[in-house]
User: Fold these one by one.
Assistant:
Number 1:
Amino acid sequence: MSQPLQPEPPAAAVEQPRRLQRLNALGPERARFRDLIAKVGSGEHTSTGLSRAEARDAMDLMLQGQASEAQLGAFLIAHRIRRPLPIELTGMLDSYRSHGPRLETPGCRALCFGVPYDGRSRAAPLLPLLALVLAGAEIPVVLHGGDPMPVKYGVTLAELFAALGIEWRGLSLAELQQRLSLHHLALSHQPDHFPTAERLLPVRDEIGKRPPIASLELLWTPHCGDHLLVSGFVHPPTEKRAWEALAAAGETEVLTVKGLEGSTDLPTSRAGITARVRHGSVERLLVHPRDHGLHGDDIAWTNLETWQQQGLAALRGEGPLAMPLLWNLGAYLWLADQFKTLADALDQARALLASQCGERLRQTLAHPGESSNR
């Protein structure tokens, strides 16, 4: 006699053990990251976004190497397409602060600049020159960057400083802190001082688009303590997102700048668009070079050798970069509350360039052995 057919178990009853087996095979960290991908990768009607804690967890897992290469690529491109929420950037910033290097300027307020890590390719950069003059005037400046990287692979801060004879690559964090303490200037180099972030570069290169980490690099600084955070931006929505993310992260003194190629370099060809954020209050500040007789074409980037000659001349107050440097120096002295009026700040900028304090500091940093023996 044939046995009656047994009813088939519900599909869910079969699928659930299989799903659990696959999740167990992934391991707890990758399984957790898989859930975070699902949140950022859902459509606009079903995506809930990440909480601050979840965004920090995602960044922690990426920095710790707990996510697979496939998961990294999926998360980064999905997050870019959906655009990060301000609170997600805050959570990622929490992770960077926890894992990244730390520098201090006890008793001194620092100027901390956040510029695109993928460098410059169209306009001649001014930030290394500006930083040298400010630091030469004993105003601490903290910068950070890396080696040439996607997507632009433009010239980097480390390459520009090296062209001036100053090498930041290969220094230990202790050596970097010593330079900052003695000479009021530091450039944190990602391969040396933040290797866990450096491991994300191959995936960033392969996806071919700037992920939200590129935005994060504009908001983070290795400096701990009292500072003014100066962050470059290109598009207005990016600026507003930065204000909100930094406010949630506890940054009370922020300056956002629509600079050349997304940097903090103020143009001389048009008005400089900036915003000063103090304890959550935003003040739009437009600075007009024409009003101070400093209007002119922005100097184009050609190659490192040409820039080297232009940069060395500008530190002596000469050549095509001298006027853009003067404009940026005066504007930042004013925007950093060193002077009550921009006109007074520009007078001081002229005096600093005439004193060649930036050139003297360049020589000191270019020949550290000689300076220590004097």
Note: Strands lie at 103-104, 110-114, 141-145, 185-189, 223-224, 227-232, 253-258, 272-278, 281-287.
Number 2:
Amino acid sequence: MIDIGAGGPFRVSARARVAIALAASALAASALGACGSSSSSSGAGGGSGSGTAAAGPHSRPAPRRVPALALPPNPRPRSVRVPILTYHRVHVYATELTKSTPDLTVEPTVFAAEVAALDRRGYHAIGQGQLYAALFEGRPLPPKPVLISVDDGYVDGLKEILPVLRRHHMVATFYIITGRFHEPGFLTAGQVRQLDGAGMDIGAHTRTHVSLPALSGAALTSQVAGSRRDLERVLGHPVDYFAYPYGAVDANVIASVRRAGFVLAVTTQGGTRESSLAPLTMPRIHVGRAMTPASVLAAVAG
């Protein structure tokens, strides 16, 4: 079923968006394969890689069309119950080259089981645009909505998380630390584009993951507005979503996030209700290493 969401009467639901992205990927792969076959049959010494090389190893896909959003100056008070799950790493902890805080790493088999449990229980993973439309336009959400978020921009997002989401036709929001594009273990700019092209939402998580209340002036602007600019250059479309490092936030930081043009921002404060009157301090549910499919279901059920 196609749900109506923000951005006009033909905006599709997050689940449909992922299905469309999957179909587009399959068509692109088919076309690329056909080009490769033609190239190898007509050129001397050509192989299966000839078609790929013709496309260029660093070719960039066309930017995904994402509507520009803005916070209304006087929003109508609305509240919706949307549990936002927070993940960080999905990786075999024993094999991590750089050890994270143990509670931030969920084993891949556990993550797959948690997503499968949500799917079986009828939860619908929604996108940020759907949440925005529900809060500010009164648009309906699908039954049992849940929003999956992934912080920090580890390469696990592409290698471990995306395949599971695709299997269940779900979407997630990936909050990216833009200063880590070239660090081992983190997503590159090209890999962030791959997530975006797969129908995932991309949000900013500052440039260097610093505690924002400790900053002011140009330093704060660089971390907040600068990370948005970084991602918009990478993706070629607006980036409207933000996550506060460590959940650290105060009035000055919120004002900076608002000035930067973000419309939805998440904290680490626990809760499941999102409000049009507090869109820049939305609560989430931390999914730690000790959680199981059953405890995730209990958390989202409240």
Note: The CA atoms of residues 285 and 299 lie 7 Å apart.
